[in-house]
Amino acid sequence: MAVRKITEYPETVLGKAGKPVENFDQSLADLCSDMFDTMYDAEGVGLAAPQIGLSLRLFVMDCDGIKLIAANPAIIHTEGEQSSQEGCLSVGKVPAVVVRPLKAKLRAQNEKGEWFEREAEGYAARAFLHETDHCDGKLFIDHLPKLRREMVIKKFKKEKTWK
Ligand code: NI
Fold it and tell me: How many whole angstroms from 141 Cα to the centroid of ligand 1?
């Protein structure tokens, strides 16, 4: 088990759709364990493979009582609307208000390759959507209007130079 380095905007891997997970073996289980370690170390609630430099359709999360591994995730149903603050470990956790569906249903495979469906609402639904976006090469800032997106990027770059 190990904490991996988190890739940050604008590294190209974050903007690429990941490849499907095909091998459900011990190396995948080890990778997921590293992803949980990395996520907890960074005090995040979700982490997708592109965030540690791997272009794969895979994420882990532990958010609002829902802890899971999702390989080859897809959002198969959404309902309603919510508007609240969101941040990303790859964008220095700079927060911005993002409009998302209130409820989301996720379909994915666990580390053994078994398919499952899981419904969530509120914060956890937001995590399903945010992490599935990562697997599609999309960041939360891509949901923002241009000026707000530029503001988040500017703040992120400024905070980075201070570190
Ligand atoms: Ni993120």
Answer: 10
